[in-house]
Amino acid sequence: MAKPVRRQHGLLPDLIDWAESFPSVFGLRPAPGMRVEDFVEDGMYVVRAELPGIDPAKDVTITVHDRLLTISAERAEETTEKNHSEFRYGSFSRTVSLPAEAREEEIKAGYADGILTVRVPVDETATPHRKIEIETGDKG
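Request: output the structure for the sequence above.
Response:
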């Protein structure tokens, strides 16, 4: 089985990093998103999502349907000062396609230090690719 390369999901991650590096202007700040990477390592398809400051038991849902793994999260923050309060909230969702040889019934997930890690065992002995012969020549 060929190893997929690491890939970043999301709209223009470098541009978002650049925009988030600026201080708030007039109280406006880009909404934080969910950065996701996936790769194959030691017979496991691994999906990692950065989700700092959330309670994974309450705020995160992981589903799998038709070889699509979806991670959904909601975040809510409130800050209150003497004459000012702010509310920030949002929901995020990312979906990745599982490899054809993924064993969906054995998916496990863990959360530590703001990183959600989903591990999907992959059957490395399976042959997910098949060569299709092309017929050529005159038929007649």
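The CA atoms of residues 14 and 20 lie 10 Å apart.
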